[in-house]
Amino acid sequence: MTAAKRTFTRKGLTRLGFGGFESVRRLRETELSSVSDGGGVYAVLRESDNPPHFLTRSSGGWFKRKDPTVPVTVLRAKWVDGAVVLYVGKADLGRNNDRGLCVRLGELLDFGSGRPIGHKGGRYLWQVRGSDEFVVCWREDPTPRASERTLIA
After folding, report:
1. Is the model's pLDDT at 87 over the cut of 70?
2. Which one of 25, 55, 80, 119 is most buried, by most CB atoms within 10 A?
3. Residue 43 in 3-state DSSP?
4. How far apart are CA 71 and CA 10, in angstroms?
């Protein structure tokens, strides 16, 4: 297993200081009560070994009248077999220090629930059957933008 593959597992992310590891469903039920307000990075994991089933319609919200749905052929072409981490994101605090992890993850989940939220990143998540069972983890980080870039690289 390559170093990148070892990093992009629950165990690897835990070693990198990530915590939480709660399902999308649980985060919605608890209104993200376990998520901090600080800036940081987060990841969305799919821990199933079963092949994904792609939906023809996204549950994502239409933001600025744009349908987030993409053709299933696009999803198939972008899918990486064996991948656990599906998405990496960041939460910069913003000018008023009010855009931390809880706010940004809330926007991601609200978008996936069909609300017209500007969170186009991660839009493919909501076209995979079972997205409520995806696991979200996060880490407070003083340099979220740089950390996100490092993780994606």
Report:
1. yes
2. 119
3. strand
4. 30
For 40, the token pair is: 């940081």
Q: Please answer whether residues 44 and 85 qualify as being in contact, where contact means their C-beta atoms are separated by less than 8 angstroms.
A: yes
Eight-state DSSP code of residue 36: -
What distance in Å separates the CA atoms of residue 139 and residue 35, rounded to the nearest whole number?
Answer: 10
Residues 6+ apart with CB under 8 A from 48: 130, 133
List of residues 6+ apart from 26 with CB closer than 8 A: none
CB atoms within 10 A of CB 96: 6
Residue 44, C-beta contacts closer than 8 angstroms, at least 6 positions apart: 24, 85, 86, 87, 89, 108, 122, 125, 134, 135, 136
Please state whether the predicted TM-score (pTM) of the whole model is above 0.85.
yes
- Minimum mean pLDDT among 74-78, 113-117, 119-123, 135-139: which range? 119-123
Residue 57 carries which DSSP code?
A: S
Residue listed under structure tokens 């052929």: 73
C-alpha–C-alpha distance, residues 102 and 113, integer Å: 16
Q: Which amino acid is at 151?
A: L
